[in-house]
Design goal:
By secondary structure, this protein is α/β, with parallel strands linked by helices. It has twelve helices and 16 strands. Strand 10, helix 10 and strand 11 form a beta-alpha-beta unit.
């Protein structure tokens, strides 16, 4: 099997768009949650909290012609991919159109505004607002196909619309594709735009935070006083590459992907299952050929939902024990849904490279129903480790676990 490395990253996140900026935000121990005043217009919506991606500029190449098939979710994905290709030294490289580079990318849904146009047709019996590109903007794989068209990519496209595991599945399937020799490089990750529709999905399940008067104190993963998740938006693209190909072109290497596990609960569409969550982690360990003791840090999915935190913590404890340091980056940037797997994987491997791991902020009183893990709190932790794990779990009972290894500088 071929070895797979990360040679570039591009991100648009609620914490910033480059690692120095994100690192500063993490070390500040402050989240980016804000009140969304426009959500007041929705009767029955309880949460008013969200996390927008930081503002970003678009080059002149983003114009009416090139963006006509893009909603915000696609714009986020395309721009993050452009930044990743620049970082990897592959922007405008012949590899993009060679058929040897592919895409594995996902989001929970397409752009809600475009979906709304079809909703208006159903409820109002009118096609007003529907254009030739409305469906392209609304389809769940809109980011993937727009990335392909924008950069002229002719390799395989794997679309991973699997809610909260969309981008971690994208990374995992890209890794397996390169491992097997089907492609020499892949653009992997996901994107999501923030909209009240997403909030309503979780609101109806009583899974959103309603601390509308204290956005700085929520979400609170694993805390006894948590009251639900806060939704965010963003995009992150990782350039994955076969090791010998990366070395032959003199690419910088950020980390090696060494393990991936994914499965499904097969029981319930919204209630997580600790047993199958644990199996996904075990599959990743087996894929990496590592014992549980090799993992030096775990980036938890950590949504701050009641059952999610409890089930995840017990699954983690059963497979990896109580000693492994754990934290959740969602405490800073909320739940970015289709983007969370790639954003969190990127930040995790960067923390490994730096030797400092961010705490779960607002975790002041660990829920006794959660397993007794080594939760990182306070000011974070200086920690030297060569192996890290990043986990995500999604509606539909979909579970993913990724393992990365430090690459010597």
């Amino acid at each position: 099997m071929k070895r797979v490395v990360v040679t570039g990253v591009g991100a648009l996140s609620p914490l910033g768009h480059d690692w120095p900026t994100v690192r500063t935000q993490l070390r500040s121990l402050r989240n980016s949650v804000q009140v969304m005043p426009e959500w007041l217009a929705y009767e029955g919506l309880n949460t008013r909290l969200g996390v927008m991606a930081k503002p970003f500029d678009l080059p002149e190449t983003y114009n009416r012609k090139t963006m006509r098939s893009m909603g915000r979710v696609a714009i986020l994905g395309v721009r993050a991919t452009e930044l990743a290709l620049e970082d990897a030294g592959l922007l405008n490289d012949p590899l993009l159109g060679s058929g040897r580079l592919g895409i594995a990318y996902g989001s929970s849904i397409g752009s809600p505004g475009a979906i709304g146009a079809f909703g208006k047709m159903i409820t109002g019996n009118t096609t007003e607002g529907i254009t030739a590109n409305t469906y392209i903007k609304s389809m769940a794989h809109t980011a993937a196909v727009n990335i392909g068209v924008f950069f002229g990519i002719t390799g395989r496209v794997i679309t991973t619309s699997s809610a909260c595991t969309s981008s971690s599945q994208g990374i995992g399937y890209a890794y397996e594709t390169i491992q097997s020799g089907k492609q020499v490089a892949m653009l992997a990750g996901g994107s999501e735009e923030l909209h009240a529709i997403d909030a309503a999905v979780f609101d109806t399940l009583f899974a959103t935070s309603v601390r509308n008067d204290a956005p700085d104190l929520t979400p609170r993963p694993f805390d006894a006083a948590r009251d639900g998740l806060v939704l965010g938006e963003g995009a992150c693209t990782l350039v994955l590459e076969e090791l010998s190909h990366a070395q032959a072109r003199g690419a910088k290497i950020l980390a090696e992907v060494i393990g991936y596990g994914t499965n499904s609960d097969g029981k319930h569409v919204t209630h997580p299952n600790a047993d199958t969550m644990g199996v996904a982690m075990q599959l990743a360990l087996e894929d990496a050929g590592l014992p549980a003791s090799a993992i030096g840090y775990i980036n938890a999915h950590g949504t701050a939902t009641d059952q999610g935190d409890i089930m995840e913590s017990h699954a983690t404890c059963k497979v990896l024990g109580e000693r492994v340091p754990v934290s959740s980056l969602k405490s800073y940037m909320g739940h970015t849904l289709g983007a969370c797997g790639s954003l969190e994987a990127w930040m995790t491997l960067e923390m490994m490279r730096d030797g400092w791991f961010a705490p779960t902020i607002n975790l002041t009183d660990i829920d006794p129903r959660c397993a007794p893990l080594d939760y990182i709190t306070g000011n974070g932790r200086d920690l030297e480790t060569d192996i890290v794990m990043s986990n995500n779990f999604a509606f539909g009972g979909l579970n993913t676990s990724l393992i990365f290894r430090r690459w010597p500088r």
